[in-house]
Design goal:
562 residues; alpha/beta; four-stranded mixed sheet; 25 strands
């Protein structure tokens, strides 16, 4: 018997029958003159076309989220793509909305982030690497502001900036821990004013958050102008507008702001635009792409990064609040393998059947379902199927979800594409179309204090006993509120691997407090970032980075993206 050859993601993508992007746009009735084509298979949609659809009826919005991620993988993006393809297969006009992959994880741990198997967006190589240059534009705009700030200090500091109160760092779209803390301006007065600073990864930039929340160039410019870069010696904020940098930053971003149109392996439309991480930023694709999709399709399927305690919480409390949208249903992705890890099984042993470990680890899934219910949104569990899963292990998930009043559906879209997720698609349609007795609600109100907003998330979403911070951090909360920003939502930055701030605590941790390390204002984005535990805004590479296997073969083709 011949062993079946298993193709890699990049081999599957390369073998796909890709259509020219004009054909994909025609499916959505997007005029050719409103497309800026980047080669044959990807394009940007004009902002004029987006604004021409204002007032058009909006389709249903479906959010895909997941349990707390593990090295075993959950397949949230893969499920998003598979579900979108499946909805099209059952006769719905569905569009997928994803974030753009960051080069950091691509060359670090993921080796690519455009879905997997037969549920991918293509051209996979372009999307995972430089795509349409959006991230480069965002990083350049961010660093232009940094350069103008340091130039202002060098040229006399007319704004009376305190060099010890500069809060604007530089960014690069790469995992590079050596840049977390740096000293600038060395080498004499000609090179500027010496001061300590550092780098964040581009996806953590406030410019990225502003980019993803803005619906027009005018709004983008206004938000960029509000960015607080430093404080004066008498502690007054200095903004990008004070430095007269926001106009030039907008110029750098004017083309990037247009949503990117690509396709799935099954030639269904997908918008891939924006890319903030959910563990250190708000973790959602652009509002522009989401709203454009909702105006063009019956169903928009989008994802939010990492587990539901991070991406989904921010999608619901920040993106929905800012954009005036709400999901009709939520899909919570889980795998047998990941639940076994939450149940204490080592990664090397995940291939061995262990229903008891699934039973032990399912408490993580239960907590995420409880959290979703706090927002009054109906949910379904997608069991992303692996060939090593046994019927007994799958039954543990199905039976536990049934007892909780939630349907759990096995889907094998990785192996079969949209055909493998048709049952999931039908369940999503049934949930989204069902009349609801409870209205969507946020976890906290605008009027609550920032401290109480953080505590509401920590206690209700993470399951913590309380939050804690030292005197200096508590004073920062008070200072932000005194400056008139107490009504903003909070963007929590914490580890993605645990509901707590300790990545080693899997499953459903209990009896813990949440330590707040720092808090900072993102006035342009319109939220307050709260850093918890030891979370870093500049990731590092693993011992064996994915970059070691990414290369070109003799035919000049990319290999190693997976």
């Amino acid at each position: 018997m011949t062993k079946k050859t298993v193709l890699s993601d990049i081999e599957i993508a390369r073998a796909a029958k890709i259509k020219r992007i004009g054909e994909i746009a025609a499916k959505l009735n997007i005029p050719e003159e409103d497309l800026d084509q980047y080669g044959h298979y990807k394009a940007k949609v004009s902002l004029d076309y987006f604004h021409s659809l204002a007032g058009a009826p909006a389709g249903k919005l479906i959010l895909v989220t997941a349990i707390s991620p593990t090295p075993a993988g959950e397949g949230k993006t893969t499920t998003t793509v598979g579900l979108g393809d499946a909805l099209n297969r059952i006769g719905k006009r569905a569009i997928i909305c994803l974030r753009e992959p960051s080069l950091g994880p691509c060359f670090g741990v993921k080796g690519g982030a455009a879905g997997g198997g037969y549920a991918q967006v293509i051209p996979m190589e372009d999307i995972n690497l430089h795509f349409t240059g959006d991230f480069h534009a965002i990083g350049t705009a961010h660093n232009l502001l940094a350069a103008m700030l340091d130039n202002h200090l060098k040229q006399g500091n007319a704004l009376n900036i305190d060099v010890n109160r500069v809060v604007w760092r530089r960014v690069v779209d790469m995992n590079d821990r050596a840049l977390r803390s740096v000293t600038l301006g060395l080498g004499g007065f000609a090179n500027g004013i010496p001061r300590e600073s550092g780098y964040d990864i581009t996806v953590a930039s406030e410019v990225m958050a502003i980019f993803c929340l803005s619906e027009s160039l005018k709004e983008l410019r206004e938000r960029l102008g509000k960015i607080v870069v430093a404080y004066t010696r008498d502690k007054k904020p200095v903004t990008a507008a004070d430095l007269k940098a926001h106009g030039a930053m907008t110029v750098l971003l004017k083309d990037a702001l247009k949503p990117n149109l690509v396709q799935t392996l099954e030639n269904n439309p997908a918008f891939v635009h924006g890319g903030p991480f959910a563990n250190i930023a708000h973790g959602c694709n652009s509002v522009l792409a989401t709203k454009l999709s909702m105006r063009l399709g019956d169903y928009t399927v989008t994802e939010a990064g990492f587990g539901a305690d991070l991406g989904a919480e921010k999608f619901l409390n920040i993106k929905c609040r800012k954009a005036g949208i709400q999901p009709g249903a939520i899909v919570l992705v889980a795998t047998v393998r990941a639940l076994k890890m939450h149940g204490g099984v080592a990664k090397a042993d995940l291939g061995k059947p262990d229903p008891a470990a699934v039973e032990k680890g399912i408490v993580n899934l239960e907590k995420h379902l409880e959290n979703i219910r706090l927002f009054n949104v109906p949910a379904v569990v997608a069991i992303n199927h692996f060939t090593s899963d046994t019927d007994e292990e799958v039954a543990v998930i199905e039976n536990r979800c049934k007892a909780l009043g939630v349907q759990a559906i096995k889907a094998d879209h990785w192996a079969r594409g949209g055909a493998g997720a048709e049952n999931l698609a039908r369940a999503v349609v049934e949930l989204a179309e069902r009349p609801r007795s409870n209205e969507f609600q946020f976890l906290y109100t605008d009027e609550m204090s920032l401290w109480n907003k953080v505590r509401a998330i920590a206690q209700n979403i993470y399951g913590a006993d309380n939050i804690m911070a030292d005197v200096k951090v508590r004073q920062k909360f008070k200072d932000i509120e005194a400056a008139g920003h107490g009504n903003l939502p909070v963007c929590m930055a914490k580890t993605q691997y645990s509901l707590s701030t300790d990545p080693a605590l899997l499953g459903r941790p209990k009896n813990f407090d949440v330590p707040i390390r720092d808090v900072k204002l993102s006035a342009g984005a319109g939220f307050v970032v709260v850093l918890l535990g030891d979370i870093m805004t500049m990731p590092g590479l693993p011992k064996v980075p994915a970059a070691e296997v990414i290369d070109l073969n003799e035919a000049g083709e990319i290999v190693g993206l997976f």
